[in-house]
């Protein structure tokens, strides 16, 4: 009995790790409310032939952009309301916003040079306040 329980746990853990190894993420590149967001949870996609529809509630946004780690070359989409893919046919109640899949994406950090004027203004103002307090 112990051996069968341990074997069953081992098989389940392997299945979970294998299924996580095939997880993909979808970056929406089409302009709209889902633009520049990465989606990680796919909807029900049955025999789609490569196209995947993703759930529109679980996303991460980046102001400066994304860098794909390993692009799969497959197209993906997010439906604005409710979407489902089965047997190569995708249906959406709403609008489909398209993008592409990758094994994962990393956030591109925003360049600090765009904000140097604000940092300079803030530090200069702080310096003037400190000098005026010492003079009094």
Helix content: 25-40%
Q: What number is the mean pLDDT?
A: 76
Judged by helices, strands and strand pairing, the structural class is alpha+beta
Low-pLDDT windows of residues: 5-22
Q: How widely separated are the two ends?
A: 84 Å
What share of residues are in beta strands? 25-35%
How many E strands?
A: 11
Strand order of the largest sheet: 4-7-10-1-2-5
User: What overall form do the CA principal axes indicate?
Assistant: elongated
The arrangement of helices and strands along the chain is HEEEEEEEEEEEH
- Biggest β-sheet description: 6 strands, mixed
The radius of gyration over CA amounts to 24 Å
Verbal overview:
The protein is an alpha+beta fold and 136 residues long. The chain has one domain. It is built from 2 helices and 11 strands. The protein has helices at 2-21, 116-135, and strands at 25-28, 37-39, 45-46, 52-54, 59-61, 66-68, 71-79, 82-86, 89-93, 96-102, 105-107. A 6-stranded mixed sheet has the order 4-7-10-1-2-5, with no helix packed on it. A 3-stranded mixed sheet has the order 3-8-9, with no helix packed on it. 18% of the residues are buried.
Protein topology:
Layout lengths: L1 H20 L3 E4 L8 E3 L5 E2 L5 E3 L4 E3 L4 E3 L2 E9 L2 E5 L2 E5 L2 E7 L2 E3 L8 H20 L1
Parallel strand pairs: 3-8, 4-7
Antiparallel strand pairs: 1-2, 1-10, 2-5, 6-11, 7-10, 8-9
């Amino acid at each position: 009995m112990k051996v069968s329980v341990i074997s069953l746990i081992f098989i389940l853990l392997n299945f979970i790790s294998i299924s996580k190894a095939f997880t993909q993420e979808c970056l929406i590149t089409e302009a709209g409310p889902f633009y520049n967001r990465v989606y990680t949870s796919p909807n029900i996609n049955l025999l789609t032939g490569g196209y995947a529809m993703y759930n529109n509630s679980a996303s991460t946004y980046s102001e400066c952009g994304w860098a794909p780690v390993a692009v799969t070359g497959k197209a993906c989409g997010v439906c604005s309301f409710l979407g489902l893919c089965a047997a190569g046919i995708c249906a959406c109640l709403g609008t489909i916003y398209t993008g592409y899949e990758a094994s994962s994406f990393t956030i591109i950090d925003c360049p600090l040079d765009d904000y140097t004027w604000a940092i300079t203004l803030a530090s200069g103002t702080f310096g003037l306040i400190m000098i005026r307090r010492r003079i009094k």
